[in-house]
Amino acid sequence: MEFLVEFEIRVPEGTSASEVSTRQQAEAAAAVTLVDGGHLARVWTLRSASAETKVLGLYRAASEQELDELLRALPLYEWMTVEVTPLEPHPNDPRGGEKPLAAQNQATNAELPEPRLSLAYRLEATLGEPLPLGETAHGQRRIVPLTGGVFTGPSMSGKLVSGGSADWQVVLPDGTALADLRYTLETEAGRLLYVQARGVRHGSADVLARLARGDDVEPSEYTFRSSIQIETAAPELEWLNKGVFIAVGGREPGRVIYETYLVE
């Protein structure tokens, strides 16, 4: 704990100069001992119009009782009038080991850039017959092959590689589909892209039932979103490895459409 201690020293009348000097020297030695022990941090002399000497000290002690014992041991204590004020940490203290609260709030409230989306590509993929794996610990598992398709974008286009693309999908009891999608794209320049997607498709019970029957349902009637990671060894497409992507999906009879966006 820290304490602000104010002393007012009154030398009794008739005290010899030699005794005053002796006690002052002993007081200085006691102050050194308190500093070495980590109890005395700072000390100031207060200006006063009277003849009395006022001293202000910043002390550290485990408790007020320990502080009282330290003060009573001072050589000048019997000549002192002492006022002790316990101190508590303040959030704006610049020496408290942290930034002042106002500075912390300013940093916390710093304006961050709003994310922007830019289209990376649109993939239209044909679907094969689902392979039902059955009920597992995760739900109703089925594997949906992506048998072909094309993708187009502002900086790259190409085709989906069949045989290396499928959705290891889980369907929950309410009809929600959880996508674990992995597919391979080949650009027109012959570069390969490995794409992994984790997504969800959900909506009302009626809409999901229509999708399950293979009806043509407008994408605006349900939510179909995915987070995307892309890997490639192509030097000119290195930016894909570092990008954060999301996709908006749409399910149509016999095919699926993904529009994949780079988050900037």
Description:
The protein contains 5 helices and 14 strands. It is an alpha+beta fold and 264 residues long. The chain has 2 domains: 88 residues, 2-Layer Sandwich (Alpha-Beta Plaits), CATH 3.30.70.1060; 147 residues, Porin, CATH 2.40.160. The longest helix is centred in the first third of the chain and has 20 residues.
Tell me how many strands there are.
14
Structural category is alpha+beta
CATH level 1 class label of the largest domain: Mainly Beta
Element-by-element helix/strand order: EHEEHEHEEEEEEEHEHEE
Shape, please? Answer: rod-shaped
Rounded average pLDDT: 88
Q: Could you tell me the CATH topology label of the largest domain.
A: Porin
Q: Into which percent range does the helicity of residues fall?
A: 10-25%
What is the straight-line distance between the termini?
50 Å
Domain module count: 2
Q: Write down the Rg.
A: 38 Å
CATH architecture call of the largest domain: Beta Barrel
Measured by DSSP, the beta-strand proportion falls in over 45%
Low-confidence stretches: none
- Main pleated-sheet profile: 10 strands, antiparallel
Q: Work out the helix count.
A: 5
